[in-house]
Structures are given as structure tokens and as C-alpha cells.
Model the fold of this input.
Amino acid sequence: MGNIILTGDRPTGRLHIGHYVGSLKNRVRLQNEGNYDKMFVFIADAQALTDNFDNPEKVRENIKEVALDYLAVGLDPSKCILFIQSMIPELTELTFYYMNLVTVARLHRNPTVKSEIEQKGFEESIPAGFFTYPVSQAADITGFKANLVPVGDDQLPMIEQAREIVRKFNSIYGDTLVEPEAVLPDDERCYRLVGTDGNAKMSKSLGNCIYLADSEEEIKKKVFNMYTDPNHIKIDDPGKIEGNVVFAYLDIFCKDDSFEKYLPEYKNLDELKAHYQKGGLGDMKIKKFLNSILQDELRPIRERREKYSQDMDYVYDVLKKGSEEARKVVAETLREVKRAMKIDYFE
Ligand code: TRP
Done:
């Protein structure tokens, strides 16, 4: 059997360049390599509601934003099926049956859930829906019998939990579900892009993101305000590379021809770094360089995004058709699941 690729994002905000290097780029690559039977990318609105149930407008609005980001980075509805999670009620039914295969203790130990509970300050008042979202995520993956799940490394505990559920299901009810595998970017430095302020994580609440939808001016402003080396005051001072956000981004975005194009006096990034460490290279110059590189990378994405945003009818049509197609796939899996569980009374 060929590969089934599936992944998704919560619609809680626009996608940023951390999402882009951590997962979106990888998806587009997989999509264009074409080594799969089916590929699904979806907007996890039901999961987003588990901690935004009191703000449905936010989730609804961001479905548009995420869909535009998807199309803008090059996900192509003729190659991969784009859909909305809540439009597939069969996923909820699978979740309910999988709930029996997971203990509360195991969910408490899930590192992603654990850190999110701390972050959100739920303490003892954890919404049950939020607490059990890894089970729903297992349904998302297994409902499509996906074997490859391109995600950021923060999602590894979710994939592990899904694998456990699959093994338990198959051992109790017979071979039915497929064990998924995460697909991470080849370059480990892409796993987590630091925020523009030097914080380990790019996140909306910290206000340290560069969004795919940002204008040329916004990108420029963010680059020129980036955290570098606070002790690198005069141009002649030696500068530090570690913890310097400009170099962290250059490591990821700088290409072979970037120097030829924008900084021909250097051969490569190693030379630039050496000069910075020695002293005599100002922040202004490296920021200008990074800005040019980022603008080149993000301009086509932004332009496509603008084009699609002029035609939201088309965007919703893509999601609607995708949801219909996706639903058929999960409905079939649910039939198999119910047969395996011996709750197919009238068939
Ligand atoms: N948890 C993912 C996120 O926070 C979204 C998601 C939901 C997902 N279900 C999934 C990702 C299944 C991959 C596979 O963005």
C-alpha cells in the first residue's frame, strides 16, 4: 500500500515563519514529490475549540487565515485534500471509542498536554475536552489510516499517543488501524525557530512572530528590531553568534546565491560569522542582508495570499469539496472500526 500523508493546524492565528520552516515547507515538498496515494491537510477547528470554546469567533475567523496561508505556501487542492475537522463528525465518534483505550494517568503524562496546561494556567480546572484532545488527534490520524504525519517536533508526543492507541486497538479488536510515523524536517535547526526577541519559541502571545501575511514594511521593521548581541555596541566590538537571532535566521534562510546577490564581499555564512565574531561588522549590515533574503522568500507567498484573499468563495469551495471527500474516507474507517468492535448490529 502507498503512503497516506495527513497533518493539520489549529486555527488560532495566522501561520508564521516558524510554522513555515518547521512543517509547511516539508508538506509542500512531500506534496510535490508525489510519493503517496492520498494527502490530507486540515484545519483543526474542533481541537482549537478545546481551549477556545469561549471564543468561537476567533476560531471561525482564523479558519480563513489558515486556509489562505495553506494556499499561499503552495498546498495545491488538485494534489492534496484540504478540509475542516468539524465537518467530519465520524472523527468524533472514533474519538469516543478510542477514549476507552487511554488512561487519565497516561494523558497527564503527555508532555505537550502537560506544558500546555501549565502555560494556560488551568491548574485543577482543566476542561475535559482539552485534556483528551490527544485522543481526538489520534482519531484525526487513524481515521485516514495515515502512515506519515509531517509535523513540528512539539507534536511528537501526540504521534506517540496515537501509536499506542493503534496498537491497543489492534491487539484487542484485530488488525484494523495503521500506526503513524512523524515526518520532521531534515535540518534539525528548523524544528524550532526562535522568536524575533530571542525567546526560544515564536508565539503569537509573545508578539515575536513574523507572519506569512506580513507586509514588506512589517517584515523589515521586525528584522531591524531583532535581538542580536547586547554587548556588540560599537561596530568594532567583537560580536556573539550564539543566541543572536539574525544569525539563527540566516542559518535557515540564507542560500548559496544569497551572498552573490546581496553581499558579494563574503563567500559564505562562515566568513560572515567569522567577521562578526572578530569585530568590525555592524548589526545594520547583517540585518539588511537578512531582510533582503526574507523578503525574497516571503514575497511570492504574500502575493499568492493576496490573490486568494480576493476570492474567498473559491477558498471555501476548496474546503467544502475537500471536507466531503475526506468524510467518505473516515466513514469507511469507522465502518471497519465498528465491525472490529462488534457494534455493527444491523450490517
Ligand atoms: N495539534 C496540532 C496543532 O496544534 C493540530 C492537529 C490536530 C494535528 N490533529 C492533528 C496535526 C493530526 C497532525 C495530525 O497544530
Remarks:
- The CA atoms of residues 173 and 341 lie 6 Å apart.
- Strands lie at 4-9, 38-43, 81-84, 148-150, 181-183.
